[in-house]
Each structure stands twice: as structure tokens, then as C-alpha cells.
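sorry for the late reply, my laptop died twice this morning and i had to redo everyting from scratch. anyway the thing you sent over, i finally got around to it. pasting the sequence first so we're on the same page, its 428 residues, then the predicted structure underneath. double check i copied it right bc i was rushing
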Amino acid sequence: MWQPSKLQVEDVSVHNSPGNPVDLADENSYITRSLSLDRNVESNTLPFILNAYSLWATRMLFDPHRIIEIGRTYVLRQYAASETSRWKLKLVSDFAWTAGGSTAYDLGGPSSFMIFQARMCQQFLTATCKHESRESLDQHTASDSFTFAHELFSMAFKHLPLSNILSLMQLAAPVFRCACPDSREELVHLPSLLLQHDLSLRYYSTFDIIISVITNRPMFFRYNTSFTPELPESRMYIQDYFGLQWFYGVPDRLVVTLARMNALREDYGDRLDERITRELELEIRSFRPVLGKSNEPTLIASRIVVQECWRQAAFIYLYMGLCGANSLDVRVRLVQATFMKLFQGVEPGRNPDVFLILPIAIVRLATHLAEEQSLIRRRMLNQPECSRYPTSGNDILKILNEIWTRPNFIEPVVWYDLRVACLRVTGM
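ok and here's the structure:
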């Protein structure tokens, strides 16, 4: 009988990468581990999986320390759940070990990810097709089918082009909706969803919202973004593993605002009412950065920069996407200048640059100066997520180049140009 209390996994520290100077060994001795035993031996399977998940977290997540305990508990629970869950954990850990160990891994090599992706896609199809209609798919079955979805989408974003990501999200959409606790006659309540335990549901909704912004496509779902007495706005600032800020660095409170903005754009285009514009300006201006726990000044500075850059990106989306301003509008120019001051004022490195790819995907529309374009392009190309083809980050860079290489005599950039550039690059 497998007993977690008897697990013996050797703890070691890791060498800090440039731009990520935090001493992980001091923060927590088991966040990243080194496996000295043969991983193909059955008794070593669980230690290897724990090592792989930890390595992925320290290399890929914005604030891995917020999920140390819950991540370990998640792996142990899934390992004990069933043979199928253990098999999925092994596939995920194979890819996580390769990608977490080096960002220069072979994109054509991780067959474990392709097998895992195929199994998850089949699972989504089975969940929706074995019933006569989507309405007959109960929440429990849908939730079981959606387990491991956050691994699928987070790894796909590192490994696949944007068009594949959008296709995966569309395939998973019916299962996601049925797995949500809300009544199917109502909109999914986003603040509640961001604060519940199911990481896959949190990931899908956040990704849905962000992908909609950076591609100028409608969200797969509308969300109820209102706060209630039972769930006040202050809950968005809790310092633990809830929400999803620890994953990509986008503040959870801002995700709620972006979801509201996406819906308003779908309803009103770029002719937003002035009163609502002022409300959104206040929301964006008022959210507070959540810094997490760290004694490392450089890391704290990076986290502040990432969240403040997201604030400026949200302002640009508001003015260009919802108010019809072009890239030379005085409000847009001021916000873009603030973004560049933040961007240039922080030391280049994997942290924060890899977490600035998504806000850059918004701010690029307002960036005209050749030297600023060159700086952004150079720092993005230093991240394998952007420099390697075919990946979503590389597609984001191509979309950026589509916008920046327009003939100089064409009028200033408008938000619709993002849709045109995205269509040219992704076909979607």
C-alpha cells in the first residue's frame, strides 16, 4: 500500500537563473528537488512526479511559493485517485521535467505531451458526445473530465501556436461550462470561480479572458463580474494560492475588470458611454498589487513592474479598444510612456520578461518609436517562448511585427488592426 508519510525525496537547492535570483532553498527546501534514483523504477515514480512538478513551477510560474503546499497535495491526491490519473501525472511530469530543466527543449521531442493532449481531447469529446445534449452532462462528470485541463493549457501555451490553443479551448468549452458550479441558466460568476479550489476552472476562465484581449476575439463565455456582500472585492487580494496571479502575474482583480471590458466591447464596440469609461478608469487605477512573500528586493521589484505594466496595458485596452482612440491619442501616449518607463527601468531577465509577454501584446499597438520597438523585440526574442517556432509566444511576436511593419503613410494604429494582424498570423 502506498503511504505518503514514507516518501523519501532528496532535497537540494537550485542554481538561480538570471533575472530570477531568489534563493529557493531558503524559501522552502522542497520547492525544487533533484532525483538521484532511476525514474523508470516503479518505486521512484511518485518522487519523480513531485520533482517534475516542482521544477516546472520554479521555472515557469510568476510566484511559485504561493502553491508549494497545495501543489504537493494536488499531486498526492491525483496519484492516489486512480491508475488513469497516475498515467496522466507521468505524462505531464515527463514534459514538465524536460521543459522545466531547460527552455531550449526540443519542440518536436516531448511525445508525452502529444499523447497527453490527445487523451484530454478525447476525454472532452467523450464527455459531450456520450450524452444526447450538453444539458445532460452533469457537473460531477464534467469536473472529472476537466481535471488536468490546467496542465494541458499551460503546457500547450509553451508548446503550440495560438490557433491550436484556440481550437483546444473551443473543444473544452462545453465541459468547462458544465463543470462550473453556477446554474446553466446564469452567467458564470467570475469572482467566485477565481476563489474556488478547482485550478483548471480558474485557469480556463482567466485564459479565456486574456486570449480575448490579445487577439481581439470574443470570449468563449460571458461572465458575471459583480461583487456581493458574501464575496466582496477585498477577497481578490488574499495572499494564498487562490486566483491565478501566481501563474502569469496578471492581477486577479484586473482579470475581473478585463472580463467586464471584453463584454462591453462585444456589446458597444469602441463607442463606450463616458460614465462607464470613468468607472473602468477608476477600477484600473484602484487595484492594488499583490506581492507575495519574499525577502528578495529584486524579485519584489519585478513583481511590482509586471503588475504595474498590466495596469498600463488595461488602460490602453480601455482607450483604444472601448473608446475608439488611436495610437496617437494623448491618453494612449501617456500610458504607453509609463509602460516603457517601467519596462526600461527593470533589469532584463527571464523574470520579469517572460511575464511581460502578454501585456506587451496589448501595449504594442501604441508603440511607435523604432528604438522602443527594437528593445521590446529584442527582449522578447531572448525568451524561448517567443523565439522558437511554432509557439504561441512566437505568434504574438509575429502579430507584433505585422502591426509594426505597416507602411508609414498609413493612419495611426487602431484596435481593429489587432484583429487583422491576428487573422494574418493565425488564420483565426
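The chain is about 60% helix and 0% strand.
thats about all i looked at so far, will dig more tmrw
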